[in-house]
Amino acid sequence: MTASATDLPPGLPDPLAGRVRAWLADDPDDADRAELTRLCAEAVRDPAALDELADRFRAPLRFGTAGLRGPLRAGPGGMNTAVVRRTAAGLAAWLRATVPAEAVAPAGAQADTTARAGAQAGAGGGTPAAPALVVIGYDARHRSEAFALDSARVLAGAGLRALVLPEPLPTPVLAFAVRHLRADAGVMVTASHNLATDNGYKVYLGGAEPDPGRGAQLVAPADADIERRIAAAGPAAAIPMAETWRQLDGRLVEDYIHAAVAAVLDLAPTADPAPTAGPDEPEPEPVPVPVPVPAIVAYTPLHGVGARTLAAVFAAAGLAAPALVDEQAEPDPDFPTVSRPNPEEAGTMDRALALGDRIGADLVLATDPDADRCAVAVGGRLLTGDEIGLLLADQVLRHRPGPVATTLVSSSGLRALARSWGVEYRETLTGFKWIMRADPGLVFGYEEALGYALVPDLVRDKDGITAALAVTLIAAAAKRRGRTLLDLLDELAARIGVHETGQRSVRFADAARIATAMRRLRAQPPPRLADRAVTGRRDLLDDGVPPTADALPTADALPSADILVLFLGDDRVTFRPSGTEPKLKVYLEVVEPVDDTATPQNTEDTEDTEDTENTVVSAVTAARERARSRLAELTAAVDDLLGQLG
Questions:
Q1: Following DSSP, what letter does each residue of 145-204 receive, concatenated?
Q2: Are the beta carbons of 269 and 474 closer than 8 angstroms?
Q3: What is the pLDDT of residue 469?
Q4: Which residues in 404-440 are b (16+ Cβ under 10 Å) and which e?
């Protein structure tokens, strides 16, 4: 497994040739070495190949709070066997240094769980814990299973216990397993909804029972510490490996299915109170429950791993399996029918929407390839992540009042909804790693990018499977009342106002120019946008200190971040660099109140319910039109501003 200078063609420039030679000498994967050798041969005669080779060796793939994510390619700048083994070795070293050797296993741990984990079951107050336990999952992308098994072998070689999920499964199942098995860490090999040519490596942390981050993705400073240990891991070919890891059986998946269904059914709407009733409104008289009317659902897993688990969850909940987009039903790492397997991207859900139209579906659902996100369409209209999040949050709060959280780039509608229910609201930086740590008693969290956590105590991450089930149950209950999710959104707007959101972005050829653009925005923020005065700003680079302006009177302090928010009264525009692409992203929100003389609480004595409902719908429609008009004007102004920055 060594390479000599003769393995490289003459003509490669130094120091690149030296770096390539050293990498080839330590790369344990025959196929990766062959790929790199071929690229070297091309590089001496093709400038494009030389640029590609130089790019692979310009810098190693960075390990951060999102773990690893990058193109499948040989060399330090890609996802490959050598990089994965060194990453697993770094994680193992970190766990050996941070998990207390004298820790005591929790009393009352399930006997079957601890047996599968290879731990000693304690009958009393606990027994000395076995070595750190890591659970590993993987999706159906190219090389995901191989990377997962290599990780297990490296962790086992470091003396840790490693458990591997039984097959390619959704990310939420892995996140569930970390908490369910009381693991010290979890690894999920996935690139979520990235291109087919990518893969990734997400890390979840265990922790003590009260820790709100137990089972969530890692955050700083753990990421930097792990990255340092990865750098010190040494040659990949020399990393010790062992076959003492174990593969879990289907019971773990069954545990997830049963727990997920029980938790969502506990939140399911009843047929009695109409969803229009808020916390301060009188409950309507119970109505006779008609014969259940199931929602007709079309669904696509977008060539990912969601279909089997989602079908099992629906069956366990007593629902018919959704109609599947046949050509997208089975896992396929090439995602052949979509340009990008991201349900947020235009065109990705076209086949599902067409199926929904053919079968007269009440609901069209899509999960991304690792099934941690869920997209929803009704009547051919794609709902935004904010709209889905508010519908789900309202349903959760009816049954389980408690703290809720979202990110500062998501709709402020959750703040208004929390206020209406009298519960705590938390605002975080972008990413579920922050949402899940917002409050130890968190009952619900979401982000605008189609991620929802309905049962944080079960899965401390976004979960597209439970979200799909919950949305279907809400739609079915609405259907019994002759309503759709769009009607429920109108009813919700009547209570908390209209919150219209939008996004814009500009791509930069040189990523360094993004920092320049952000500096210009801070130094010279626009005094007006769309002929409206900018009334305040919030700069997360100012030590993460929230503003004193009235725009955010209850804002929580946040860690420092490269985020700038401009306020125009209740409306806001948020600028931040993308964490994964050379883009400057902009999030817009317009808030428009609904005429409160038309809302149900002010028409309790109205005998003609139909007239009352029509009045509410008219008021909401008028508010939406005003909000959309203002959002269009604000979007045009932001486009002009981005043009100047780009």
A1: HHHHHHHHHHHHHTT-EEEE-SSS--HHHHHHHHHHTT-SEEEEE--TTS-TTEEEEEEE
A2: yes
A3: 98
A4: bbbbbbbbbbbbbbbebbebbbbbbbbbbbbbbbbbe
In this structure, how many other beta carbons lie within 10 angstroms of the beta carbon of residue 208? 9
pLDDT in tens, 475-491: 999 999 999 999 999 99
Order of strands across the sheet that contains 564-568: 498-507, 583-592, 571-577, 564-568, 536-539
CA-based end-to-end distance of the chain: 48
Give the angle 385-309-366 at the CA atoms, nearest 5°: 30
Tokens of 308: 């089997």
Beta carbons of 402 and 222 less than 8 angstroms apart: no
User: What's the CA dihedral at 377, 378, 384, 389 to 10 degrees?
Assistant: -100
Sign of the CA dihedral with 598 first, then 554, 577, and 337 last: negative
**Cβ–Cβ under 8 Å, residues 6 and 47:** no
d(CA 7, CA 9): 7
Asked if 122 contacts 109 with a C-beta cutoff of 8 angstroms, the reply is yes
Measured distance CA(188)–CA(147) in Å, rounded: 10
Side-chain-facing half-sphere of 573: CA atoms under 13 Å: 31
Which two three-digit tokens encode residue 14?
A: 């130094």
Percent of the chain with pLDDT over 70: 86
Torsion of CA 231, 237, 241, 243, to 10 degrees: 140
The 10s digit of each residue's pLDDT in 264-288 is 999 988 754 454 556 665 554 443 4
Kindly list the catalytic residues: 192
Burial of 289 (0-12, 13-18, 19+ CB in 10 A): exposed
Reduced to 3 states (helix: H, G, I; strand: E, B; else coil), residue 500 is strand
Cα–Cα distances in angstroms (integers) from residue 464 to residues 171, 269, 307, in the given order: 9, 19, 11
pLDDT at residue 290 in the model:
39
Please state the pTM of the whole predicted model: 0.89
Give residue 405's region: left, alpha or beta (phi > 0; psi -120 to 50): beta
Q: Is the confidence at residue 102, as pLDDT, over 60? A: no
- Looking up tokens 């010290």, which residue turns up? 184
How far is Cα 453 from Cα 464, in angstroms, rounded to an integer? 8
- Rounded to 5°, the CA angle 359-346-413 comes to 90
